Amino acid sequence: MGEFNKMYQSSRWKRRRRLLLKNSPFCVECLKNGRLTFASIIDHIKPHRGDWALFLAADNLQTLCAACHGKKSRLEKLDGGKM
Predict the structure, then answer these.
(1) Model confidence over 19-32: pLDDT tens digits?
(2) Which candidate, 15, 39, 43, 66, has a CA 20 to 30 Å from the CA of 32?
(3) How far from chain centre, in Å, is Cα 43?
(4) How far is CA 25 from CA 33, 42, 64, in A?
């Protein structure tokens, strides 16, 4: 998170995160695989790289559990962050 810490600390992000977890409390990847796992992370489907509009875009956000988010992050790093 480092360089984008201010974005994640904004009141707009905190409200967006809270609302998304309330409305979509389960990990979308686990659901695809028939598992019911509570989500704890709001993931940016496409990395925002500091783009505020993309950072908050509802269609670029998904709820994930920590395990699925870690797997996605590892795959993005292996792909050079080009996902």
Answers:
(1) 999 999 999 999 99
(2) 15
(3) 1
(4) 16, 10, 9
Cα–Cα dist 82/3, whole Å: 18
- Percent helix, strand, coil in the chain, to 5, is 55, 10, 30
Q: CA angle, corner 17, sides to 12 and 20, nearest 5?
A: 125
Closest Cα to residue 17, out of 61, 52, 66, 47? 61
- Give which of 65, 40, 42, 44 is closest to 53, Cα–Cα: 44
Q: E strands of the chain, at which residues? A: 41-44, 61-64
Number of H helices, E strands in the chain: 5, 2
